[in-house]
Design brief:
The protein has three helices and 21 strands. With 302 residues, the protein is mainly β. Strand 2 and strand 3 form a beta hairpin. Keywords: Lipoprotein, Signal.
């Protein structure tokens, strides 16, 4: 597969250790539509499609927000049955005639796509299928360009968000991005990557992100113990504190969290390594040691 391309300010401390949501699917196919009723592509058509170079980019949909599309503007989908870490597709045979696997050959990442999230799996027939954030991508045989008829189909199929998550479905307050480059890193409720600033001071939390810094970096809102547990984190690593301007900011193992305004869509990690001091926050954090452990993903690469 070919992939294109402060002044220190003290914060007053409220030492507080941290003490969900499927939305209705969008437009779906007619009730009479079943996997077996959709005409299949013949072998020559399938082979021709698989041989063609593929470009994937992000389109803004009025109902589903950001969705992934192919070079023809057709919406791409993920399956709730596919698991990112499995390296397998749950859709073969008749299913694959309706939800057509996207070939992984000669893929070009377009606008809004983080190329680091693109990958592939090997299907049972030996062909390579494109993945995004570890999730296999498919097109829906009944869709035309710009349509999302497959959204919510069989309560399994959903348009792909730019990080491989399900578009049109409410996100939790705290999420996890499976990045092949950075590993598992934390996201906020909008799917934006959470970062830490190595110039900050943990315990007691002090933020070095001054007014100029805040033009590019936004303090992350507090989350709950339940939010942490939902992504496999101990609530003990949550510390909410009050910033100099009086707002509440969440920190993870005492490291204040931020989002980067340069990340325009879920799954982007444009803030990683900025200035050699900004790093995505690991989703796998040991029990709190009051900041002695710096949960910075990929820091050793800089």
């Amino acid at each position: 597969m070919k992939i294109a391309a402060g002044a220190l300010v003290l914060a007053s401390l409220l030492s507080a250790c941290g003490s969900t949501q499927a939305a209705q699917p969008g437009s779906a196919p007619k009730a009479s539509t079943t996997l077996n009723s959709v005409p299949s592509l013949n072998v020559s058509e399938r082979n021709a499609e698989a041989a063609a170079p593929t470009a994937v980019s992000v389109r803004v949909d009025g109902n589903l927000k950001s969705v992934v599309v192919d070079e023809n503007g057709k919406t791409l989908y993920v399956s709730a049955k596919d698991k990112a870490a499995s390296g397998k597709s749950s859709c073969d045979d008749t299913c694959a005639k309706t939800m057509v696997p996207v070939p992984a050959d000669d893929v070009t990442p377009g606008t809004g796509i983080n190329k680091d999230l693109l990958g592939s799996i090997t299907r049972v027939d030996g062909s390579k299928q494109l993945t995004l954030g570890g999730k296999p991508l498919y097109s829906y045989a009944e869709d035309e360009a710009g349509e999302t008829k497959g959204q919510g189909f069989q309560k399994t199929w959903y348009a792909a968000a730019p990080d491989g998550a399900k578009a049109g479905v409410s996100r939790p307050a705290l999420g996890v991005l499976d990045s092949p480059k950075l590993g598992r890193v934390l996201q906020d409720k909008n799917g934006h990557t959470l970062y830490l600033f190595t110039k900050d001071t943990p315990w007691p939390m002090q933020t070095a992100c001054d007014a100029t810094c805040l033009q590019k970096w936004t303090p992350s809102a507090p989350v709950t113990a339940a939010d942490a547990k939902a992504v496999g984190l101990s609530p003990e690593i949550l510390f909410t504190f009050t910033t100099p301007n009086g707002t509440k900011q969440e920190s993870f193992n005492c490291w204040p969290a931020y989002t980067f305004k340069g990340d325009k869509a879920p799954g982007q990690t444009n803030g990683q390594g900025v200035g050699g001091v900004w790093f995505a926050i690991k989703a796998d954090i040991p029990k709190s040691d009051r900041g002695k452990t710096v949960p910075a993903a990929g820091r050793d690469q800089y």
